[in-house]
Every structure is written in C-alpha cells, then in structure tokens.
Amino acid sequence: MKLSSAVQRISGEGAEAWEIHYLARQARDRGEDAIVLSVGDPDFATPAPIIDSAITALRDGDTHYSAIAGKQALREAIAEDFTTQSGVQCAPSQVHVFGGTQNALFAASLCLLEKGDEVIALEPMYISYEATLCIGGANLVRVSQPDNFRPRASLIAAAITPATRAIVVTTPNNPTGVVMTKDELQAVAELAIKHDLWVIADEVYTDLVFEGKHQSIAALPGMAERTITINSLSKSHAMTGWRVGWAISPPIMEPHFNNLSLCMLYGLAGFIQEAAITALTDQRHASAEMCDIYRARRDLVCTELAAAEGLQVLKPQAGMYVMADVRGYGMSSDQFSRELFAEQMVSVLDGRAFGQSADGWVRISFTLSEEELRAGCQRIVAFLAKR
Ligand SMILES: Cc1ncc(COP(=O)(O)O)c(C=O)c1O
Q1: What residues line ligand 1, using a CB cutoff of 6 Å?
Q2: Mutual angle of helices 370-385 and 286-305, in 10-degree steps
Q3: For residue 22, which of 338, 322, 332 has the smallest C-alpha distance?
Q4: Residue 1's pLDDT is what?
Q5: Best of 102, 130, 168, 242 to mutate for ligand 1, by most ligand atoms within 8 A of CB?
Q6: What span, in angstroms and rounded, lies between the C-alpha atoms of 104 and 150?
Q7: Model pLDDT, residue 2
Q8: How far apart (Å, rounded) are the C-alpha atoms in residues 246 and 249?
Q9: Domain-by-domain residue ranges, the chain?
Q10: First and final C-alpha spacing in the chain
Q11: What is the pLDDT of residue 236?
Q12: In this predicted model, what pLDDT tens digit does every residue of 185-230 receive, in sequence order?
C-alpha cells in the first residue's frame, strides 16, 4: 500500500537526539534512580482553580461542539492579556484559539506558505518547527547564530531570497533562553518590511523571563499587520497536557484560520476553554509564582555546574533550560549525553535536536525540584571530573 510522502517529509532532523531521553524515562518507570533533565514539561501541577473550572464546566454539560475560533470570553481574555503585555491593541476577533502552539503553527504555515516557499528560522530552534512549518511543502531555511545564540541580522539578511515568505522569531527562545532585545527585534522587523515578509512570533515562554524584558515584535511600527503571534498556557500555567494555544493575527487571517479550523479542530473543547479563561483572569498571578521558582532553579543549576571548570554554561534570561557547551572536554554532545547516562543515569538533551549548529551543546531542563536538580548537577560534575 502506498502512503503519503508528507509524513516522511515532516519527520524532522535530530530525532535520534531523543534516544537518551526515552531510555531515561523507561529507566525511571522501572523504578531506577534516573534523573531526567531532558524534557520541557513543567513539574508543577496545574493550579487547582483552573482544574475546578474545567470540572464545573463538564458537570454543567459543556461537552458539545464549541465556537470554531474559540469562546468569545476566552478570545476577550487573550486579547486583553496581549494588549496589556505587549502594548499592541488587539481585538478579540484577531484571536483564534487552537489546540496548542503546534496546532497554531501548523495553521499559520498552511495559511501563509505554499510549496517551494522559504521560511527562515534561527538555530537552535524548537524541534517541531520543521514539521509544522513545512507540512505544505515550504522549505525551512536554518540560520545559525554564532554569537552565543544571539541573532545576527546580517546572517538573516543573507538567507533571504526571492522565495522567502516568512521569518520565525522565537523570543524567549527554547533551548537557549535568549530574550531578544528591542534592537534585535527591530533589525528583524526592518528586514521583514523591506522584503515584505510575514513574521511568525512564537512567544510561549513570555511569562518566564528572569532578566531583560520580553517585547513582542508585533509592537514595533509596521509589524502588527504582518505578524502572527503564537502563545499558549503550556509553560505559563503548567498546562502542557491541556493543549490550549492561540494565534493573534491581523484581521485578514480570520477567515483563513476559520476555514482551517473547520477541518482541523472544529473548536477546542468547551470545558478546557473555561479552564483557560480562569488561567488568564483569576489565575494570572500563578505564572509569576512559577517564574520565581524557575529563576531560583536556574541559579542553582548554574552555581552547581560552575564546579565543572571545562563546562561553559550559558545563563538563560528566560525559560526552563540551561545550555552547556561540552566541547571543552573534547566530546561531542552525542557522546556526552550517552556516556553521562550510562555512567550516572542522568539524561540531558543533545543540542543537535535543535539543529546541527548546536552540536557540542546540551540542554539541561530545570523542571525538577531543587533537590533533584542538585543531585543531577552533582552527578554531571562527578562525570566530568573523570575526564
Ligand atoms: C518554543 C516553543 N514553541 C512551542 C512549544 C509547544 O508548546 P505547546 O505545548 O503550546 O504546543 C514549545 C514547547 O516546548 C516550545 O518550546
């Protein structure tokens, strides 16, 4: 039987980098003493009032088809939140609710990109961009960032061709924790305007900024009309499994997103939307509390890892991950992650999962308790002490 080539096309680079993560999960599930520092799923429980809202809505019979673009109350809450955070005036009609960021990225790429178009994304990049952006036959153009993963406008400019249609801007960034400055965003904005490009702004870590200030590229002059801003509750409210995400776009996108949603999702479950409304209104403070805990963990990990002299640790400005350069030990990131797991039962993620230019780096998540993180870091230091 013949299968579509589309799925093959979207399998993505760097899949083998996940092998150690899966092995570590299996070891932990068998009850072994594995410390899993390779995943980006917050360890916090979703705040109870958010869960209660979903349960109440379920009991009240909110189990039917829901509005395609999202409930009006949720679209209003998202629009108000975005306007407050970014300064961009956003109407509820510009908000489209999707099943997670992935779903929103998928929809944006299908609406913006045709077969043969090019979309630029900066490496290291979130793993599923290749799959979500290229589903319709567009080509992903990867631009590396040699300045400790800060974007260099000249490299982005050099990657633009007549086929370029869009640039993806991920700030704060996964895996690097870089928060783009206004000047860095301005440089991208100028290129987008000059070449008449769309910008897809992935802002899922907006609420987890430790230093610097998150700024939305949509707030820069001339950008709101060419930017699709994507966000979700996965990281801000520890709601990865709820799959609530959304896109904020210029009015021209509304009918296109509606058409796509009709065949992709047909409206996110109503009771989940009720939970999302609670997250963005009554429980807005929850993410600030989580952010404080992540900041303390980030500091702990950086302090503990400083004991390994050859390890260059990039202190993240935001997010849930530390990037560490292991090349000082004469190892590739693949070798490091395999040997670390074999010797110390600690899993980290090989940077190649985020693109070849992150070879030599590993991503260490701080989505565990301080006690577990300290133990994990001490095992890494012990592992490196023998090298
Ligand atoms: C940069 C980035 N974008 C999007 C996502 C996906 O988030 P969601 O759970 O909202 O689909 C992630 C998840 O790790 C991410 O790191």
Answers
A1: 40, 100-102, 126, 170, 174, 202, 204, 232, 234, 240, 245
A2: 20
A3: 338
A4: 86
A5: 102
A6: 25
A7: 83
A8: 10
A9: 5-45+286-385, 49-280
A10: 51
A11: 97
A12: 999 999 999 999 999 999 999 999 999 889 999 999 999 999 999 9
- The ranges of the chain with pLDDT < 70 are 9-15
Nearest residue (by CA) to ligand 1, atom 6, is 101
| Fold (CATH) for 49-280 | Aspartate Aminotransferase; domain 2 (3.40.640)
Q: Which two tokens stand for residue 314?
A: 């990039």
Q: Which two tokens stand for residue 349?
A: 């993620």
Distance 107 CA to ligand 1 centre (A): 15
Which residue blocks in 30-71 are alpha helix, DSSP H? 48-59
Residue 307 phi, psi (nearest 5): -70, -15
Q: In the prediction, which pLDDT does 49 show?
A: 98
For a substitution probing ligand 1, which of 122, 206, 234, 363 has the most ligand atoms within 8 Å of its CB? 234
Report the top-level CATH class of 5-45+286-385: alpha beta
**At 35, which amino acid appears?**
I
Task: Take residue 319 and report the two structure tokens written for it.
Answer: 């997010």
- Alpha-carbon span 111 to 92, nearest angstrom: 20
Tokens standing for 25? 């999960």
Identify the bridge partners of residue 166 per DSSP, sorted by sequence position.
119, 198
Q: Which of 101, 130, 132, 243 for mutating ligand 1's site (highest number of atoms within 8 Å of CB)?
A: 101
The residues pairing with 150 across neighbouring beta strands, listed in sequence order, are: 147
Distance CA(312)–CA(323), nearest Å, equals 9
Residue of 180, 92, 169, 77 whose CA lies nearest to 126: 169
The residue among 243, 299, 289 whose CA lies nearest residue 267 is 243
Query: What confidence score (pLDDT) does residue 233 get?
Result: 98
DSSP character at residue 61? T
